[in-house]
Every structure is written in structure tokens, then in C-alpha cells.
Amino acid sequence: MRRPGIRSLAGGAAGIVAGVIGGIALTSVSAASGPTPAAPEIDAAHTPPVLTRAGEPVTLRYAIVCAPRDDGEPCDGSGSLFVRAGQSGPFQQLTLRRGEDSSGGRYFVDLPRGIASSRAGFSYYATLRDGASGATITVPAGGDAAPQRSVPLLDAPEVVLGAHAFGRDRAPDERVVAAAWGGEVGEAGVVGSRELGFVGPSSFDVAADGSVTVLDQVNARVQHWSRAGVRATSLEVSGGLADFALEPGGVMDVLEPPSRASPAPILRSFRADGTPRWAQRLSDRTWAKLAAGPAGPVVQQQPSEQWVPVAANGTALDRAAQAGQGRPGRPFANGREVVVERVGSGELRLAELVGNGVVCSWRIISATPLGEVQLAEPHGTRLVVVTKTFTDNRSEYVVLVLDRSGIVNSFALESLEWAESAPLARFRLAGSLLYRLGSTRAGLFVDRFDVEVSR
Amino acid sequence: MKAFLVAFGVGVVLAGATGAQAYHRFWANCNYDAPTFMTTMTRDAAQDYANAARYEGYQWGGGCWNYDDADSYPYDAPGDPSAHGEGGDCSGLTFKTWRESTDTWRDGRYYWRALRNVHGPYTAGDFKSGLGAPNHVVAKSTAGVMDAFASSTHIGMIFYRSLYGGDQIVEAKCEACGTNIFYRTYRSDPNYGGVARWGWTG
Known about the structure:
The complex is a heterodimer.
Chain A: H1 6-33, E1 43-45, E2 51-52, E3 59-65, E4 77-85, E5 92-95, E6 97-98, E7 107-110, H2 113-116, E8 122-130, E9 136-139, E10 148-152, E11 158-162, E12 174-180, E13 191-193, E14 197-199, E15 203-206, E16 212-216, E17 221-226, E18 229-234, E19 243-246, E20 252-256, E21 266-270, E22 276-281, E23 286-292, E24 297-302, E25 307-309, E26 311-312, E27 315-316, H3 319-323, E28 330-331, E29 337-343, E30 347-354, E31 357-366, E32 370-379, E33 382-390, E34 395-403, E35 406-414, E36 427-430, E37 433-440, E38 443-450
Parallel strand pairs in A: 2-10, 11-31
Antiparallel strand pairs in A: 1-3, 3-7, 4-5, 4-8, 6-7, 8-9, 8-10, 12-38, 13-14, 15-16, 16-17, 17-18, 19-20, 20-21, 21-22, 23-24, 24-25, 26-27, 28-29, 29-30, 30-31, 32-33, 33-34, 34-35, 36-37, 37-38
Chain B: H1 2-17, H2 19-23, E1 36-38, H3 43-52, E2 63-64, E3 87-88, H4 90-97, E4 109-111, H5 124-128, E5 135-138, E6 148-150, E7 155-161, E8 167-174, E9 178-184, E10 193-197
Antiparallel strand pairs in B: 1-4, 2-3, 5-10, 6-7, 6-10, 7-8, 8-9
């Protein structure tokens, strides 16, 4: 082997230095250029008054969100509202006004009294525009095919809860799942740290036979607990905080959050053996809750704030088809839908609809602030509601069983949420049995409560 | 010349696989420009600003991103500020959106452009405690648009309230989550407190 000369060594050293510099420069240019920086699309936010009281003035407010201006001022938005009294017929166009305050949405319309107080309610959609880019967005995306629908609370009993007494929690009737943290069958996956917080199984569902399926996304699987024991089925999921629903026949739906790999939410459908059926992007940008509807999975979404079907009879719907079928309430097999609206800090409005007509409705007032509504489902002629009540440093769940006259049964449940789960996935109802997903430092559990029993 | 070319190739490979490359990753595109002092700061302009950071990734200890709707380095090691990837972390995103000063005693409004690399002096726990002249705690039940919920480890801003009583939260939560708008129930979570910025002008 010939010894390298000085010139070869110098050339090699210079080459390495030049190569490193060139490589860094190339990487930087690549990162800097990439796709051409683009202004984000126009977006919007709106909370529809889906349940109104008689004589209540209605102001519809919208936040128009567009690319940030270089001068730091809000975007130059505008928009039109298309509204009608009742639930069918032609829409009347009103121009949104631009207010001084954006805390509830800068762009607004005070509805004419004749529309706001219609006994058939009112329906509407808005087209919003960014003056700088010309971009537009329709909210809800279904427009005139699936407008926001608002109905009046007719003869709604007023349920006054008063101030919540913390610490009087009901104990479970039975603990049906108890799983230590871990990766073995019968254990539940958890990730995180004391510094960053912990994430455990993000959702679960209960079959008609009472067997419990837990989405153990940390271990990329579901686990089924039944009288026969526990078994695991692998699923190709991202591991993010997903919601989960079981359909008849064992089909499983997993609603994935946005992630670095997929910036839009996706619903994945799996066969009972865990093999993928299809994956479909949602029509909206954000989801709150997944449920199994009469014809397939339905998702409560934002900014539409509607329940939107993502598949029908086993086939995924494209985004336009989803948006064209949005509804204000969650549909159930009995042909009814349940509409929920949390108002202010301590008011909850509920209604059961058939078509666009109110069958029964409730107005619940709490002196202690109310948080999210985890569950609102019919049970026979009654409605079971699970909501959270909270102060700045405490919280508990309140379970209400309602009939047409008011409260039939109620009890409180301790918030046992050591590990994070999907936002509205902590409760499931099967007949009169309410199941709660919870966690402690020791592991995961599912507890069962009979809502027809007072304790 | 042959030795130079061979070594040049080796150097390019090294640049793609060494700490030198890591140091000069996304942050090589960032700047250290002075912020623009503002007399106004509206909640919807804050919505615009935070919304534009969606899809741009998450970087622990970071505060620099562009507007190409993609995380340029989506698989950085979590919790490693030396990764120098794209995006803010939760408190960096909040600091920039809330137009705060790097001096905790200043309560003025300072507009930081997206590519200005600044995280600010506050952790999520600092925000939760209301530390800093521009910040204060609020009752969670009254927290509104572009106020925030903070725990000892995380902070997210309220993009808008939602029908079911939860909130659409704009946040940079983790490397895998990126920066986006998620539906959250922080409002009723005892681990979280309400926190807000003084000085909104509309």
C-alpha cells in the first residue's frame, strides 16, 4: 500500500471541510425553502345557540381567522348570514357587522325578533371572507344542505342543582376491568413522565353483552374484557389520544387526532380481527366525540358544532358528503337525536328531537360551574346525562337521570383521572348500566353503575 | 483532486449525520430581530397568530416556525432543546401569541414574527402561577377566547368555547402532537388553572 502524499492529505482535509460546509448549507437551504411558505387557509369559529328560550334575543357571533398580518392587526373580515325562520324554505341574507370586541367573535348579527322567536326555531349558515386574500369559508360546511338548526326549549322543566357538595361520591356497583400499567395482555399501556403528565388508554366501549373493549393505543391494540377473560387484538393506530366506538358485528372505529404525520383528524375503521377496512379524513378540523350511530360512526365536530356521519352502511363518506348531512344532535337507534348546549358557567340545555321537532327538553341550572357533558343518551323514556362540575381546584362528575318532569335519580362520581384520555370518552351507557373509564397511579379500571338504583 | 472529491463526498455525508447538522437545523432559518412594540393587541389577531402556527411542529424550548404548513423536523427527540427543530413549545407559543416581553417586569405588547426565535422566560408552571407583569390568574369558569389553561407542565390557549362545554384549545403539546387545535376539557380539570394576559384592546 502506497503512503499518501502531503498533497493528497491536504486535498482530503480540504474536501471534508468543504463537504461538511456544503452539506450544512444544503440542509439549511432545504429546510428554508421546502414548500413555499403559504398563508394558512381562512378558518372560523362559532357556537350556535341550538336551544333557545322563549323571547330570548339571539346574537350570532363568528370569529374569522386568517393569515396573521405583518402589522399585527386582526384580519379584515366580512361575511353574510343566510337565515330563515323554521327549518325549511328560502334563506334571507343578512350582512355581518364588525364589532369592537372579539372576545366572543368580532362579526355578528342580531337576529330579527320574528326569526329568533319562531316556534319552529330557525336555521342558518354563514359565508365568511378574508378581505386580504379573498379566501372564503362556509360555516357549517354543508351550507344550505345542512345548516345550523336551532329549536326552542318548549315547556322545558327547570332543574335547579344548587351548589354542589363535593365528597359525597357514589361507589361503583362493580369494577369490571382492573389493569395494571404495562404491555402484557391484561395490562394497559401508559406513556409520559411526572414532568410531562401521563397518557393512558384513551377510550373504550361496551358491547350489548356487557363485554368491555379498551383502546390501548399506547400498545397499538384493543383489549376485550368479557366473562371468558381478556384478549388483545393489534391495531395500526398512531398512538395519539383517539376516541373509540364499537359497531354491531365487532367493527371498530378509531378517531385519530391530528399529529405530526397527519395534520388532519382521521377516522379509521377496523374489522373485528383488527385488519383495516378504510380510513377517512373528517370534514371539519377538530373533533370532540365519536359515537356509533344507527347507520355508522358519527362525530361531533368543530367549527360546524354538528354531529356529522363519517360512514353509512359500512362505506366511508367523502368530506362533502359528510358535511352535507350534519345535524345539531347525536342520532340514536330510536329515531331521535339528543341536542346538548352548555350555556354560560352553570347552565345546561338538553332536548330530544324527532326530525326538527322537540319531543322533550330540559334546562338545568347549577350554582357550581359546569364543565363538559360527557354523555347524554336516552334510556327508555328517560335521558341519562353525565356532566362535570368544578371549582378552580376540585371536580366531580354528576350523573342525572331525567324524565319529562325533571330529575328521577342523580349521584356524583369522583374524578379519578390520573392518566389523560380522549376528552369526552370517559363514560358509556349500555341499557341502565353506566360504565366509567378511570385511572390511578396503579393502573386502569372500568367501573359500572346502575343508573336506576339510588344509593 | 481525486482525494478532494472523495473527501468532499464524505464531508457531505458527515454533515447529514452529525451534531453539526443538528445544531444548524431549522433554527438556521430563524432570526433574532427586535420585536415590534405595539399599542394594540386583539384577541382575534392572537387567534390569527396561533392558528398560523398549526401544522408547524413542536420543539421543546423552541419558538421559531415558518408558514409552510409542515413540521420540517417532525421526529426530533422529545424533550431535547438541542434538536433545534421547527415550532414552539406550549409556553413559547403562548409567550409569542400574547406578545410578551423577555423582561418579566414589562407588560407592554411586543409583536414577534414567526421566524423570530424566542421562547420567553416563562414555563407552563410560571404561567399557571400568573408570574410576570403581563400575566394573571382568572377563574376557570370565566376564561374566554385566547385566555389559557395552564398546569405545572402544560399550557394551551382557548381558541373558542364549544357546545358540549369543553374548549377548542390551540396548543403545542408534544413532538408527536405538533401544534394544532384540539378539543380539550382543561377547564374542568383540577390540574389546570385559568390564566390570562392583561392588556387586550379588542
